[in-house]
Amino acid sequence: MENSDAPSQRPVTLDIDGEVDPDGLEASASPQIDLLGRSITLEVPFQEESIDLDAEAFPSLLDDSVNSETIIDKLNDQMMESVMISDSPNSEDEDVVPIDTLLGQNEDNEALDSKGPKRDAGKEDDDTNTASSVNAAEPEEASASLFEEEVVKTSDKIETVDQGSFDTPSPEGLNALDTGTTPKDELLPVCTIFSQGVQPKAQALIPDGFQPILVKSPSFTIGNTETPNRLVPQVCQPSPSLSKFFTDNGAVNPASDFFDSFTTSTSFISISNPNAESPKATVPPEPQLLSGTGSMPTPGPQEAVPASTYFSPASQGGVLNPQASSVEPGASMSKLQAVFSGGDDPFASALSTSEVDKRYDAWLPSEETRRVLISVATHQVNPAQLDREHLSMPGLKFDNLQGDAVKDLMQRFLGEQAAMKRQVLSANSVEQNFLGLKRLISTKNWRAAVDLTGRLLTAHGQGYGKSGQPSNHNTDSLQLWFVRLALLVKLNLFQNAELELEPFGNLEHPNLYYEYYPTVYPGRRGSIVPFSMRVLHAELPQYLQKPQETLDRLHGIKSVCQKILSNLQEGFAEDGSMINLTQENRQASIQLWRSRLSRVMYSMANCLLMMKDYVLAVEVYQSIIEYEPEQKVQLLSGIGRIFLQIGDIRTADKYFLEVEKACELKGKSPDEDTSVLMNRAFVHLSQNNYTDAHECFSSVLKIDPKNPVANNNAAVCLLYLGRLKESLGQLESLVHKDPALYLHESVLFNLTTMYELESSRSTQKKQALLEAAACREGDSFNIQCLKLV
Amino acid sequence: MDVNQAKQEHLLALKVMRLTKPTLFTNMPVTCEDRDLPGDSFIRLMKDDPSTVKGAETLILGEMLTLPQNFGNIFLGETFSSYISVHNDSTQMVKDILVKADLQTSSQRLNLSASNSAVSELKPECCIDDVIHHEVKEIGTHILVCAVSYTTQSGEKLYFRKFFKFQVLKPLDVKTKFYNAETDEVFLEAQIQNITTSPMFMEKVSLEPSLMYNVTELNTVAAEELSESTFGTMSYLQPSDTRQYLYCLKPKPEFAEKAGVIKGVTVIGKLDIVWKTNLGERGRLQTSQLQRMAPGYGDVRLSLELIPDTVNLEEPFDITCKITNCSERTMDLLLEMCNTRSIHWCGVSGRQLGKLSPSASLSIPLKVLSSVQGLQSISGLRLTDTFLKRTYEYDDIAQVCVVFPYTSPES
């Protein structure tokens, strides 16, 4: 025992160092000596306490009855120790090859021999300590239950654990040797500059010449690693029962089930639609709905015309205006334009679309779509005869009401009465038109807004179950779709959004263009699909783990933007036609399309960032500066933060320096001062210097006391400095003082996390937050951040 | 021992949270244009949102810090930080509180508490805070054991503890390979693979040579003043990416003479790796001592000091051989040269080289010509120790490229 104690003091490396293992083995047996030594001062009479005073842990609690105490102590620590040993690091490192087994296989026998006696000694220790311990089958549960209990108190529990966790190390050393074979790596190309004749013998023993090297913490090696020239494989293997208990499934956090009081939770960001999975029976359109749609404003001459009129060719012929065809896009149109050059017809010019419309609606359809549109315009094809496959026929995919999660949560935690007090706008309580929709959006009642878009679209013939049935698109219907889809995305209901976007395909269907409806939109051309919807359509797949598709779509949009810009710069109209634009209009159009291009590039960079393709993301963000020079400071700071996220502080510093220069150029307005200070704070944070980081955030607050980011971040720093109460107090007072700014999910998440860390009564405090949120926030409030459920 | 007692409500509550680095909040921009139905309401919502970057609301990476959301992974060489909070949940004053945090690993038990002195009293709704840090030095199961003892107002001494188990994983996979150059230099190629699930910024990967060697890192391309990394500007490793580092080790002058006769396993040095991840979370590892089996040279080592890389067909060229006596005795050597199918030696075979004492070496210039084009192997040298009548054969000593001397028929 004395002998074995000495080596156990040595730090054990995770090195391939075989000698380590006997040590580790003995460590299991030896600590009680250690602990005995420490527990001498115990005084409290053990028998009188109903609670196990862990003598070892508390030298201050004194105990005379050292003997009785130490047994438990011993067992106690046996439990801990033996668990550890059975979970030998060797099991993790099967691919690690002790160099010596490769380089000098003839030394193996020797090595094993030298190890032999030590191992025996360790075994003896085990035996003496655990007289009747060796039953490996049942104990698993015993130890498991212990960990579930978490709090060890009774000695009988400890005993069961002891039985369970103790395992005589079986002679598995040979296994360890077996695992020491070389991993099968591909051969590296042999370096030919060296003559082959002198390739060392070692090469023959190591087929690929590569030796897996064990890595370990540097400070850990000090003292014993400088002379390991005999490396012996470790002997200990995990005992079957315990290794099962301790199985860790790779990257999954094994501690999660254990750490219930680790104040953590799963990601709170995603909201799932409670109704999405089990769609209820179709809610029949309510009667008042019809009247609602009746009162819908008619923003333009393009108010919906009964479908029959669009599609009856007979009624169309006479009305069709030459202008309609003369404004077809594409080069082939020039000859048509020649035919219809009599454009000075007053009727035609009255109908000609406004310059602004043209600018915003411009789009370059795909070749196929373009051909269809031309044939529609030139009467070669009747739209009614078009193959349905080429048409976009959307319909609501779900029309169950979205509900109000905040209210549900209040019902659950605060009772029916409190929930009654919650007053939010619903789809019923606003005007059944665009005005009402806008009201719902700006009051953050996005769920109700989704409901309302559903009603308005139903009135438009694109309601629930109408997908796949021909219907007409117009400016309003597509705007409604855009709003609906945008809100679904904002609500993180990505699946629903994808489902409803599906009938739109790639937004290339001919019936999504004005040219398809020459009677309704005489003379108007371009895309009815708003540009923002195209961007949304492109962005959606990335939220559903299909970022590559997002990039593909964004590149498509980007190339159209670039083409339109080059058309404009070369003196053509947006679509490449020869129509003359006034200088003013051209400039306005270039400006619009440049901003659109930069919006698409933002999306691309954001997507690349989510894909963790930092090189490209930084490149794209950098190139946006050219389009949005006024955002230079924000963009450079953002790039700097990306580098901090990777861990590359030096490069981040470089970008932050550029930010400072850019600010100086502008003469340092206080606003920019804050961004400089903010950046400095993040650098301090990355250097683990929370004190200075806190300082920097505080100085931002001196300039801009209401800055919510600085306030929140300063509080976060306080927590890392061990000042939980202060941090909590600060955040709490902010939320109460200025709920408009601080009832944000990130702040609330931080606050609830701190509540959980602070006391066992976090639920009450969270409920108070719920009440605060309930009187301010709309139905789109992300309740997950309160961590009540 | 009353088992029910164990279920008793404690006056104090112990909470533990792992302090990984905070994360930057990312928002989700959904925009529209002025002409679209929502008008300016989307952009107004984004501007009012405190988590967006003001002036650049479409940038998803914001500045708002959020606390860690889950325990996450912890890797060997990283620092385990944890917040330990003991809160008095009761309405009474509690005395003599001692909080102790130990970390139990497979080989040892470490005390992580900053202070081991008891707090004399704790008022209701107050808490004792501690932030512990520990550089993780072992792989496998770790258990954080937090023990709290205290005395109630009635003088009852109470005690409880909690266990928090977590696994420490291996972050990197390191493989090495040695190449022995003719010139006693050793080249070390190290393949380092990121086996975590997040990108890793490699701050430092250096070789700390053992006493015998000087090291030159071959991982930068010198371009004027600035040396540029061979890995380009972005020096991070994506998950499961592997990177190759190359080092050249030269024996120090005082060992250089002996290097020729170094035998067996020698210690080359160790790799020191420092990386950073999210917001500067740092990790550091060292490999064990890298060892190399010195190439065995037998009793007599023959190496080449000079050889042209390209020679003309059927034209004699010079090579210089260095012969080193690696044995413990003096040798009397005889050099024989045997022609092969393509290699023809010029000069007299069976030449006496004289006596060569241990560790001494001598250089001999030789002439040779090749009768075959292409890459030819120099072979056929035989050294005989006349004392022991032992012959050492040297084939495939080096290669030369044999070319036809005339580039075009006209010339």
TrEMBL record, chain A:
Subcellular location field: Endoplasmic reticulum-Golgi intermediate compartment; Nucleus
Protein name (Swiss-Prot/TrEMBL): Trafficking protein particle complex subunit 12
Amino acid composition bias (Polar residues), ranges on this chain: 1-11
TPR repeats: 598-631, 674-707
PANTHER family: D-ALANYL-D-ALANINE CARBOXYPEPTIDASE, TRAFFICKING PROTEIN PARTICLE COMPLEX SUBUNIT 12
Keywords for this protein: ER-Golgi transport, Nucleus, Phosphoprotein, Repeat, TPR repeat, Transport
Organism, as annotated: Triplophysa tibetana
Taxonomic classification: Eukaryota, Metazoa, Chordata, Craniata, Vertebrata
Pfam families: TPR_19, TPR_6
Record GO biological process: vesicle-mediated transport
Primary role: Component of the TRAPP complex, which is involved in endoplasmic reticulum to Golgi apparatus trafficking at a very early stage. Also plays a role in chromosome congression, kinetochore assembly and stability and controls the recruitment of CENPE to the kinetochores.
Main localization of the protein described in the UniProt heading: endoplasmic reticulum
Gene Ontology, cellular component aspect: endoplasmic reticulum-Golgi intermediate compartment; Golgi apparatus; nucleus; TRAPP complex
Quaternary assembly: Component of the multisubunit TRAPP (transport protein particle) complex, which includes at least TRAPPC2, TRAPPC2L, TRAPPC3, TRAPPC3L, TRAPPC4, TRAPPC5, TRAPPC8, TRAPPC9, TRAPPC10, TRAPPC11 and TRAPPC12. Interacts with CENPE.
Coiled coil: none
TrEMBL record, chain B:
Domain annotation Trafficking protein particle complex subunit 13 middle: ranges: 172-295
Pfam families: TRAPPC13_C, TRAPPC13_M, TRAPPC13_N
A single cellular component GO annotation: TRAPPIII protein complex
Coiled coil, from the record: none
Annotated Trafficking protein particle complex subunit 13 C-terminal domain residues: 308-402
Domain Trafficking protein particle complex subunit 13 N-terminal: 10-168
Top-level taxon of origin: Eukaryota
Membership in a protein family: Belongs to the TRAPPC13 family.
Complex formation: Part of the multisubunit TRAPP (transport protein particle) complex.
Protein name: Trafficking protein particle complex subunit 13
Species this chain originates from: Triplophysa tibetana
Lineage, top ranks: Eukaryota, Metazoa, Chordata, Craniata, Vertebrata
